[in-house]
């Protein structure tokens, strides 16, 4: 997905405020899940939610007002209750501006506990699990 740096995202030094990078990552994750068929309505209806457990940003170069930034999402599932998403924020010329690495889980909103095997759950639930790198069998 692509975002354009807006005036209210700029700090006093003239570049994107550090906290805004987290918002860019959150927006990219939300859009990625929405396109796969797991928007906020689907999450609420299913009694579950994708939750952020950890986030780390590596700033590589500053972003400034008006720049278009492409945000990629690479999702990796392992075993257990968590999964990872790595985002790369790239300028229009393709050079990286930042990397965001996240650990997420799938929360049962009633029990308030992480659900096991999020990959298998997404494979069964989503209209387009392939957008998360999952085939229909959960692999």
CATH class: Alpha Beta
**Helical segment tally?**
3
Low-confidence stretches: none
Largest sheet: 6 strands, antiparallel
If classified by CATH, what would the architecture be? Answer: Roll
Look at the helices and sheets and give the structural class.
Answer: alpha+beta
Count of domains: 1
Describe the protein's architecture and organization:
With 139 residues, this protein is an alpha+beta fold. It has helices at 18-36, 40-45, 118-125; strands at residues 2-4, 48-59, 68-77, 82-90, 96-108, 113-114. Strands 1, 2, 3, 4, 5 and 6 form a six-stranded antiparallel sheet that branches. Strand 3 and strand 4 (82-90) form a beta hairpin. It is elongated. The two termini are 25 Å apart. The mean pLDDT is 94.
Which characteristics define this entry?
Thiol Ester Dehydrase, Chain A; six-stranded antiparallel beta sheet; about 25% helix
Outline:
With 139 residues, the chain is of the alpha+beta class. It has helices at 18-36, 40-45, 118-125, and strands at residues 2-4, 48-59, 68-77, 82-90, 96-108, 113-114. The protein is elongated and about 45 Å long.
Topology:
Layout: E1 2-4, H1 18-36, H2 40-45, E2 48-59, E3 68-77, E4 82-90, E5 96-108, E6 113-114, H3 118-125
Antiparallel strand pairs: 1-3, 2-5, 3-4, 4-5, 5-6
